[in-house]
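Lecture notes, unit on binding sites. The following record was shown on slide 14. It pairs a sequence with S-adenosylmethionine.
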Amino acid sequence: MATLEDDEGNINPTTTILADEQDDAKTVCTVLDGTTDQLTQQHYVRSIDSTVVIRQLPSQGLSFQLWPAATTLVTLLDHHRGHLTNSPLSLTLPDPHRPLNILELGSGTGLVGIAAAATLGANVTVTDLTHVIPNLQFNVDANSDILTLNGGAVDVAPLRWGEANDVKLIGRHFDLILASDVVYHSHLYDPLLETLRFLLLDHEGEKGATVFVMAHLRRWKKDSVFFRKARKLFQVEVLHVDSPSQGCRVGVVVYRFAVKLQKSNAGSLANVSL
Ligand SMILES: C[S@@+](CC[C@H](N)C(=O)[O-])C[C@H]1O[C@@H](n2cnc3c(N)ncnc32)[C@H](O)[C@@H]1O
């Protein structure tokens, strides 16, 4: 099983955290508490006139920090709530007659899941590796008022990519799967795709979720290997492209993965080798 510890040596999260480069309108306040090495950020979400508060613990590793693609997804969700008709998410998130059930993978600090629940009035399950769960729960609890006010709810659960049993425990009753900045190490590509295959494809007569929406900041050429593998299983399209932040060559891209429609042999995608 892939562990986060394996990742820490190969990536420098400080170069990918754009606390000062992110949308200034969103990040209204950052407080660095030198004694606890804790960062508290307030993200104003205009469409619901609410502020999501997120605690980061930078010294504890990359799972405890906010990554740039998360902010892009929050901005899109905010825009969607405020401008339903011309939102890049409008075809993916039709106005439902019941609250959407959403699953977030690799939630890290939980900003995306919390903002999705609040802006869409959705039931969101945020997930990550076991050691990340306490900070995730802390952030969900810190935002309970705005979640209640906006008719959203967030559950926290461990979910390791590539572990079918973890998905079985959580269930497969989701309308939408979300993630931001989860493609960053090649040894995680296959476990992540296995989890997506399990969540999105039909199993034993049970329908999978319809779509996976993923915000991604391309850092390495090898990221294309993930997309090549993903296209074997899913129809992948681009929903939105951010302008590059200062100092970056590319901006965050938001992708939509949907199950490929097959003319015959509908079950065969479950067996495609990656
Ligand atoms: C780069 S961080 C992005 C965090 C958050 N989505 C964001 O955009 O701020 C990648 C996240 O994936 C999680 N992750 C890494 N390997 C994982 C695995 N095998 N199973 C589940 N989550 C994993 C990490 O713990 C981390 O929270």
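Take-home: The chain has a mean pLDDT of 85.
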